[in-house]
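Summary for the funding panel

The consortium committed to producing paired sequence-structure records for every protein in the target list. Below we show the first two records in order, beginning with the earlier of the two.
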Amino acid sequence: MNKKYFVQIMYTAILMGLAVLTQPTAAQEQKNDQTAQTIKKALDEHTYKIDVDYMTPMKGRSRALTTLYSLEVKNDSIFSYLPYVGEAYNVPYGGGKGLNFQAPISQYESKEGKKGATEIKLKTRNEEDSYTFRITVFTNGSTQIYVQPNNRQSISFSGKMNLNDK
């Protein structure tokens, strides 16, 4: 047998083996479908919680978060328990609340984005500032949150939908 031919056969066999190993099983596909349905239902009802585990300020280094932080939407209110690192332009003496507040949502828009993700834009205001939150929720439950305060630099977070509180 020709050495070149043997290498081609082995290469093809390895690729076929990898393709079989990386295919999701029926049980995994069913679990993924159930997760996507649970996420869609929570988003449609405007009742969901996102556990945040990573933050990316405009300036400075990104970092993993070891303390439990979250963003929660319940009907027409937002409960923001997020850390803030960045430059503030106009804040109360002592720094204020940052991104740790609860407030009514004044505007809520949701649309389907790329690859089945849901893109949410919501606006809210408290006694210190007004905020625009842009949230992307992927079908596997992972999320990206971009927060644009009026009186501070913007900041981004990533995390995962908390499906246990549903």
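The next record, for a separate protein in the list, is shown here:
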Amino acid sequence: MRLLSIRLWLALCLHLSVWMTGVRAEVLQMVESNVNDLLSNNELVFVNFYADWCRFSQILAPVFDETATKIKEEFPGYGHIAFARVDCDSQNEIASKYHISKYPTLKLFRNGNVLKKEYRGQRSVDALSDYLREQMKNPIIQHQVLEDLEELEPKKRHVIAYLISEDSEVYKTYKRVASALRNECEFHTALGPVSEPERTTGENIVYRPPNTHRQDVVFSGPMDNYDYMYQWMHDKCIPLVREITFENAEELTEEGLPFMILFHKADDEEIKELYTREVQNQVLGEQNSMNFLTADGMKFTHPLHHLGKTPADLPVLCIDSFRHMYVFPHSVKEGLQTPGLLKQFVLDLHSGKLHREFHHGPDPTTTSAPQLEDGGEDKTEQHIPHDPSEKPKQPTSPPESTFNKLKPSRNRYTLLRDEL
């Protein structure tokens, strides 16, 4: 009885201590009715997307809860971080909106925007806490002399702000944007008298592209408008064409967009530049429906073999729809240099023409584009002229996708579907 009384007394003390200090973290249940308030009223929201029946979700739950308490204890003054959980079985709309394809999934939201890179590290209290500590650090590097800004890492993308002080509204807006894009660019600032030579016309923010010297692009929008500044820096910091590697392939695959991939020789910078330029010129409007990628063909030999190609055939351009793979039906260099061919390749995927022709041979060709009612041309169904001397393709099946097989480990996740 005495031992039981002592235990009850200790439990009561612990409960009172937590209640008085207010550090016991509440992991909020995120539902349709509170999701907007949660995301808009907190700088950071760490969310656990789970299912009750998933054993990996059951294992993670107490770890996630303990992490929430630990972070709140460690940063009692950091009042704008929240922890939330989403029961994906009952909150299908939220799970669908954030493309949840496995349980449990951990995502971090910053200023209402979800980070593209979800948390994939070790599932321990220490590892989760380390991740959040890093996310709470100020991402802006402050420089005391302007000369330091001439020696920045040349291969990285940099944003530099020449501002009056950390108390200015411009700095606060800049810090919010830098926090949201910390994984995409390096952010720098020079403040006060140090920055005066660069503030002859007022506070100034510039973007410095990789491998350039003083070829800075000046931000000309409203300096205290977060949405405008975020969109401008997002477009600069996240390239339209990205390099796929074995390290980021899973992340890119889980974005759920088909891939257009240029397989190239490691030292062939010319073809990479040509491809990037033509993606920008011809298919910029498709960036929300397709990921444009480059890949070292000497490393990604398996997809090449799947396409019936070898490193000797490089460069090779293809589309992986996550069901099938389609090879660009032209010589890569000449095809990229011919206006319209790259765009037509994308349109042919969307219209089903690529898949259809694999099974039934080339579509009938048209010699002119249909006329629209306003006198313009409708190029949606316009086909590239076909060489009549070329033998029709025999009915066959396109190679199956290789990249849709880059799924998370079944030893850590319950996968919702086997095929994308």
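Regarding this second record: The domain at 140-237 is CATH 3.40.30.10 (Glutaredoxin). The chain is about 35% helix and 20% strand.
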